[in-house]
Amino acid sequence: MNTRKDYELETLPLELPDEIIKYKMSGDFKGAEDAADRWLKKPLPEALKQRIRIEQDFLKKLPQQYPFTSEKLIRLFQEEIPDFNEDDLNRLDQDGLVEWIFLDGKKHYISSAVENAMRIDPELHMRSNPENLPSKEFICLQEVLQEMREKGSATRIFRMRVSIRLKDEKFYPGITLKAHLPLPALYSPVEKVQILSHSKGNVTIDPEDSLTRTICIETTLQQNVPFFVEYEYTVRSIYVDLWQDLPVLLPEEARFKMAEPCKADVEEQLPHIRFTPYLKLLASEIRGEETNPLAVARRIYNYITKNVTYSYMRNYSLIPDIPQYCARNLRGDCGVQALLFITLCRICGIPARWQSGLYTNPISAGPHDWALFYTKEYGWRPADLSFGGSAKRTDDEMRRKLYFGNTDPFRMPANHAFQHPFSVKKSFMRIDPYDNQCGELESELCGFTSDELETTRELLSVVVI
């Protein structure tokens, strides 16, 4: 349970004492915790002490996300591919497709290692799916992208029900709980939102134009029932080709309905959107002599989609510098890649911001992040780096280019700013301090971790317009 209130994200960029780092990197997390305790007793500035306290939180949570030894991981792979062996794991390791840390002198792999490698490694995909049959999700995506290109747009009406519930072992009758569930906000490409029903209690529904839109429900429970909200929203994705040599005058209906960029859209935002020396060098190399903002944004998109490998990640709250991690390791999931794009754009003077929520393909729904960038010719436009990179892996250049300036209509955007506070403040640290996609839950006494919660996202209907 998370009971600390003094979590200060701004201290994350501060460097830790070498002793703590050495123990951590060698896999001796107990030694690192003991070293942290010792350093907190020394006459350090309060900001560095706060950074050490955050690290103590990391040291407790990080090993939980890396549960598999190599032997256990091989057995898990063999459930999908019976002849999978140690050589296969070594190849995935060298290709950077399985994330690990040292723990007690041995490599321990992230819990999503099998799912991640099976998804992005062509050899494993062929061994598990010899007929190379496309998934139902991919077929739906291809169909809607073709519709966008042929008709100029695609519109869908979605009805969703999302919920959050405390696990039974944490529940007791008479507990007072406060839930924050994400809601679609009325920003492009969303054109209409209706809240249909929700749990009873003390309810606060954010305005439609909130940057991080939530419904907050607080009540006392005698039985462990979930908090839920059901809503309907309309998404219209208008196709715009941003790869033409000469800009095209967009009709008003094609322009994103969002406020003009402000100073914050080109500035640093600690702890993650930082103009570090390495990222400034990288941005300069990508930009070269180009001065046109659209062309520069295109170069940044090309660099990321062609060079960064998609990879499931540990919780973002356990990564001290997300864009720097992506740039150094050339790996990251949708949000990690989006943050690198946003940071590089801002370094180059191009307004850029965050957008996230759910990817609501008619077959399934799950969390997803992407970026927005601004040019005078086209206004705000989306860039989905991970979907573009996925297209690059299959040599689908048309699909890769589409996700620079466009997104499919399978989006429920709830968050339009990174690290934006809730309107109804939490008393305890958020599970995800950067946005809200699955929901948050806390009692009067403590906050809860994602492992202590059950969340659902149910797609009730999809209507084609």
Walk me through the structure.
The chain has 465 residues and is α+β, with helices and mostly antiparallel strands. Among the domains are: 9-65, no CATH class; 68-128, no CATH class; 247-415, C8orf32 fold, CATH 3.10.620.30. It has helices spanning 18-25, 29-40, 46-61, 70-80, 86-94, 113-120, 122-128, 136-151, 277-287, 293-307, 322-329, 334-347, 385-393, 397-402; strands at 68-69, 100-103, 106-109, 153-166, 175-182, 190-198, 202-205, 214-221, 227-238, 309-310, 331-332, 352-361, 364-375, 379-383, 411-415, 440-443, 453-464. The strands form five sheets. Strands 6-9-4-17 form a four-stranded antiparallel β-sheet. The protein has a four-stranded antiparallel β-sheet with strand order 7-8-5-16, with no helix packed on it. A four-stranded antiparallel β-sheet has the order 14-13-12-15. Helix 1 runs antiparallel to helix 2 (29-40).
Number of helices: 14
- Dominant shape: globular
Average pLDDT rating: 94
Strand order of the largest sheet: 6-9-4-17
CATH class of the domain at 247-415: Alpha Beta
CATH fold naming of the domain at 247-415 = C8orf32 fold
Measure the end-to-end span.
Answer: 45 Å
**How many beta strands in the DSSP annotation?**
17
Going by helix content, strand content and strand pairing, the class is alpha+beta
**What is the CATH architecture descriptor of the domain at 247-415?**
Roll
Radius of gyration: 23 Å
Estimate the helix proportion, in percent. 25-40%
> Which residues sit in consecutive blocks of at least 5 with pLDDT less than 50?
1-7
Beta-strand percent range: 25-35%
What can be said about the biggest beta sheet?
Answer: 4 strands, antiparallel
